[in-house]
RNA sequence: UCCUCGAUAGCUCAACGGUAGAGCGAGCGGCUGUUAACCGCUAGGUUCUAGGUUCGAAUCCUAGUCGAGGAGCCA
């Protein structure tokens, strides 16, 4: 007999079938001197399989006491129609084997709910809870959906480096990677640390984005995407930031900004639709226990066209809104969280794409518009989470790019290979970045991004 | 990094400067085709750390550590 996953049992098994299931005990309810109920979960789905263990099952007396919450067991038996409420079928055990005990005195998980803060401290056990097993499954479906979305459109999956020596990508503080002795690093004649002696012969860091490298592949192999971990050493302490997070970055040749926006919108909708279709039980759970509006929010997103709003228009809306903001908005200033939230949650009440931002608040690689003031940037803003996608059409004109680098005080020599892409067969191209954990936040309704990644890294926190 | 709040039993919390408690969980017993079961009993504490004020500190003060929410930065 081979093991059957509980998801399959609950879906397909018919009375009379002999099956073998294994997993972790959620609860046990005893009927003294008669039998016990075991709620078994193996992570394959939200629901548990109810198992009835009769007192005449071999070893019942010795074993059943140790079948506590958290213990692991292997059980064979016959599927029966369940006379009780709450489940179609149950398993009448014929054999019961205890695989691993979980001492009730010390096993930290109870049947009842725990705070997410507490569960973060026991990240090795929290996947056994309803919430975190559901997040795990949803995260998996989101990742699969991402690959399918791009693969089905002929995009090439390209791996960009995690360790990089391009110094200033402009996307925030970087974690340094070094093998030098921190106590006494080698020094040059001026007394500075001599990175020529370091592992890579120069200063190296963890990547903050694979975009620049992705552009290389986009400008030779066509549509492509990167999907991997990225690192930001910012001292950010919010519910929306991680020091290590996963980012999807598609990059497309011959795409202009509107093509980019269309792709971004289709991308977000596809992910949400896939999760709704493939994780109905998990989503039901999130809607009941985590955020009672999450299904409405997601249905609202997939059923509306994302409203496109030029930055200038967005500023006008904010100015004439009659709202008082902590940070007054004016043209040329970057929008604050409160502004973005007002636009998506109050004014439009749906996802929006803000585009054509002022040049001065955006990075050097974004394509300049003819007005001389704005660049072809776009941010997808969704209710509650805020910016979920940031992207742009890239500057493909060599002279303009060099001028912009000068404006941003960047040394073209540092980016010589990026600049050369504009020298040899340059093409218009576009791309964007999407933070995986922010999508998980949006889709599950979880409020803290630290609960949307299995093992979070934030300032002062890198356990497990 | 800034602002605000917090840290007490395994968990969630209470205790207004005067003997540290409850609910849940756990252990034991009872009851029951049960469903986050129910009933009874029992055990469980260096009140985050260091200093200070006081006859006396979980409680007040100072510093630190960690956590949460908000802000900035961003995905």
How would you characterize the overall build of this protein?
With 464 residues, this protein is α+β, with helices and mostly antiparallel strands. The protein folds into two domains: 6-100, Nucleic acid-binding proteins (OB fold (Dihydrolipoamide Acetyltransferase, E2P), Beta Barrel); 128-172 and 208-451, Bira Bifunctional Protein, Domain 2 (BirA Bifunctional Protein, domain 2), CATH 3.30.930.10. Helices cover 31% and strands 24% of the residues. The protein has 13 helices and 16 strands. It has helices spanning 6-12, 60-64, 116-121, 130-152, 211-221, 257-278, 280-290, 294-303, 311-319, 337-347, 398-407, 416-423, 436-444, and strands at 18-31, 35-41, 49-54, 72-81, 89-100, 156-157, 163-164, 176-177, 204-206, 224-231, 244-253, 307-310, 352-358, 374-382, 386-394, 429-435. The strands form three sheets. An eight-stranded mixed sheet has the order 6-10-11-16-15-14-13-12. Strand 14 and strand 15 form a beta hairpin. Helix 4 crosses helix 6 (257-278), helix 4 (130-152) crosses helix 7 (280-290) and helix 4 packs across helix 13 (436-444). The radius of gyration is 27 Å and the shape is elongated. The structure holds one RNA strand of 75 nucleotides.
Quick description:
It contains 13 helices and 16 strands.
